Amino acid sequence: MTRVLHIFEQFEPHPIQQALSSDVIGCVLPRAPSARDLVHVNAGKISSYTSSAARNTDGLANKGQTNQPKPTLEPRKNSHISAPTKSSLERSSPKRHRKRRAKATAEHREQRRVDQERYRKKKAQREHDLAKVVKRLSQEVPLLQMQHMRMAFGVKLTLEAVVTKYFQLFRYGVQFSNETSSCYLKARSQQQLVFLRMAMSNDVTLGELRGVEALLEQWKRCSTYFVHLELHQGEVSNPSPNFIWACATLSVTITKTTLEEVLSQLIEIEQDYRLELRSRLLGQQLALPCRVCFEWDESSKRVVRLETMVDFFTPLLDVLGCVEYVALVMQKLLITLEGIIGL
Asked: Is the same domain home to 150 and 172?
């Protein structure tokens, strides 16, 4: 035991002979609390705060129920929200909205009416201007066609070219034009007239008739009295430089107008024959063989004589089937052998 005590005495610290100065103590920092200490401290504070807040709330509730009346909301003096007035209610009423919509609709309708009226005026003015332009151009067509033909033929204008152009232009006869006719029909009629005045002599001989106007009138009568008229050019013979014989076939259909204008004298024969002939001829299509003679003047480069011979006998015999009937019709026919109608 004594030995043990002696050992402890050896390890016992010696007492400090000198005291520590203030400088050493000032440099020592306090020890920071640990995370566990912070958790315990914060939890205690929160629990104490919660319990005190609950006690205060219960006390205020009990005190308010016994002593104080219920608070009332008063509008702020300087608040910008005010109660709705009568004028604002009228402005926001459905009736006011309906009136406003009706007024807007009426204004829109009036604006549309004005726009449509302006559009119609512009359209009418444009149609008027186009009609004037079309009329002016239609008046220039004959002159342009004549210039075109002169440029196409020029010094090369020959009898063969005139014959070919004649059958080409008058293949379907003469088509009449008026104010309501199409531009193509008007141009076609004017082209025929221009060709006749350019290729035919002014006093061209047509059997017993003379002149370009007489030739055009014969074509008009033929196109009026018959329907489905078509002229087919056939073989062409040239016996001399100034003469050409052209074979052709003239196809026509007999109508009531044909019987009234070309066979009007059938009324003079007996009624039985007349009714029989009318019934057999009406609606029949005749293919009439023709021969057309063109005489050419080399100095003037124009046709001076145009003769046409039409064979009615053979087609009528095919339709009527009786020479006696054909003889009666040929006697009353108002067409000469030269194809002249109405003499």
From this structure: no
CA–CA separation, 269 and 324 (whole Å): 13
Is there a single domain that holds both residue 285 and residue 138? no
- Mean pLDDT estimate for the chain: 75
> Rounded CA gap, 87 and 102, in Å?
20
Q: How many separate domains does the chain show?
A: 2
- Kind of pairing, strands 302-310 and 200-206? parallel
CA 161 to chain centre: 42
Q: Are residues 290 and 141 both part of a single domain?
A: no
- The answer to whether residues 115 and 235 belong to one domain is no
- CA 218 – CA 174 distance, rounded (Å): 10
Domain extent, residue 124, equals 110-155
Q: Is residue 103 part of a domain?
A: no
pLDDT tens digits, 76-119:
544 444 555 555 555 556 666 666 676 678 788 888 888 899 99
| DSSP codes, 136-188 | HHHHHHHHHHHHHHHHHHGGG--HHHHHHHHHHHTTT------TTS-HHHHHH
pLDDT for position 251: 94
Verdict on whether the full-model pTM lies above 0.70: no
CB 254 within 8 A of CB 284: yes
Residue with tokens 């009990």: 62
Amino acid at residue number 135: K
